[in-house]
Fold this protein.
Amino acid sequence: MSADSSEVVLSEVVVPEAYLPEAMDPVSTTPEAVAPEVVAQQIADADAVPPEAAPSPAKPQKPKSSKTKPPKAGASESKAAEAKPADVESGVTFRQLNLIEPLMAALDRAGYEHPTPIQASTIPLLLEGRDVVGQAQTGTGKTAAFALPMLQRIDMATRQPQVLVLTPTRELAIQVAKSFEGYARDMGGLRVAPVYGGQDYQVQFRLLDRGVHVIVGTPGRVMDHMRRGSIKLDALQCLVLDEADEMLRMGFA
């Protein structure tokens, strides 16, 4: 038969010997000669109906107690893991990234304990002085990913621009400059100068003349200051192109 066809199996019904009459041969269906009184007695026994057994008294049911099972081991841990933000690098803390205490104080003050994936992978490389190309979504802490290690590498005794961050817009330049100032709050005397178009040159001249460690600005205004001689990059150690794809799209090549 094929696999798709149905198959009917007929099984043989076997009657136990106990249910066969005593004069009946279990193999042969031909009865033997039996005395009439014996047959009458067998018929009477077969017709007799046994008395019904008295029903047993019902057992009283015990009231069910509502028991609360203790949570399985690891249940609370799994719920905590589910509640953990997806943009946090599991099992890594900022202290494991070997940041100096002034930077750790700023992070503790802000309530940051665990770095995001872009921070955990970028900070160690920048502390070693290596070149990095990073890509991450908005809101994942890209500014801290390059600001923290670059602040740690600054020589506070040298009041010359050591970090230059180029941004496509003045709004982003102001935002990044404030982030540098916030992280460097406990570094004692670190100076940051935001340099962008639309602001009076004299304001920026005064900031640059006092000596700065970090410059955050738009490409056009930074190039103007370089032509004027108000920005000199002889001591530059780190260069950041923040949102480089946007700057290329705008024509800064």
Observations:
- Strands lie at 163-166, 192-195, 214-217, 238-241.
